[in-house]
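Hi support team,

I'm filing this because I wasn't sure whether my run with coenzyme A finished correctly. The job status page said complete, but I'd like someone to confirm that the output block is well-formed before I use it downstream. Pasting the exact inputs I used:
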Amino acid sequence: MSDGRTAPPHTGVEIAGSGSALPEHRLTNAELESLMDTSDEWILQRTGIRERRRHDTSTPYPTSDLGTAALENALDDAGMHAEGLGLVLCATMTPDSPTPAVSCRIAANLGLRTTGAIDLNAACSGFVFAVSTAHAMIASGLYDSIAVVGVDTVTRHCDYSTFGRGAAILFGDGAGAVILKKTNDTAKGMLAQAMHANGNGAKSLYIPCGLDQVEDPESHQAEDGSGVDPRLNDKIQMNGKGVFKFAVSKFPEVIQETLDLAGLTADRVDHYVCHQANARILEAARERFGLPESKLRVNIDRLGNTVAGSCPIVYDELKRESLLEPGQKVMFIAFGAGLTWGASLWQI
Ligand code: COA
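And here is everything the job wrote out:
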């Protein structure tokens, strides 16, 4: 390919280990019923979600704490010490604070003092974009080993009242991580990838930092006439129907695009590791490509939408259940705020 979207053939890159971490607290649909006007039936029918996890709200740094725990598990799985990492690349849209980067805190928590650390924000597509980026950095010879972490704690930006119920029911907190390493086995690595964004869709899914960032302020006025409703500030805003439409069209489109780049048909891929946003969206994609249920894992019923955490958590579940075999093809696929959408196809 002349546009650089496929990997150079001379360097192998392996996914040497994976790990994940979830908060203890299970925020069930029944608990949501006690906080807002909603029902288990409504949530389950429209999204497939039964429960999601919520971080310990007394912790000041929940995103980096969860990311650290996931990465520790991934290092264990890879049989590696943190000192062996060349770079920590963390995908997140919910840093503990605007600065420092979550990756810096994660690296420090692991005892690293000089290892490079970068955050990447592509919302729910973050892990997919990050894993392709890390592959390019290893394949080009810059690094031998990179930790890629996907972590988010969006429940910090959810309004758990009837006012905010449209978005709040969807999200959960969680983290996943993989260790990418250079290998002499050139069959291993990324076969093709696609990264897309359309910033014109920003207002479909966003978190306003201040009421002056609220889109369409006229339709969000406070009842007392004081201006934009203050309950919107710092809380996730979503045009559910608009995002649904976007996802249903882009999700299969980017799968097909990535298959075409690799010259493969859908049946040649062993696992579709998909962002978990809505069970109906996943089911539509599965049917469209005629995939058996075993090739497209759904865990949204247990975890909700964990944003950048969702793809690496799915991957880690498959790994822990011994469902991944050397030589298999795995496609990571995601879409989300930005708007962004992308896929990364690997031979593992
Ligand atoms: N509980 C009960 N009722 C709710 C509710 C909730 N949590 N949230 C909204 N409603 C109500 C609405 O107020 C509305 O009532 P009305 O008809 O009296 O006005 C009704 O249910 C329908 O709301 P609507 O938003 O049109 O529902 P929907 O069928 O579009 O489903 C989503 C909502 C969010 C489940 C769906 O749009 C969706 O999944 N979108 C994609 C979201 C997504 O994937 N986001 C992440 C991308 S990474």
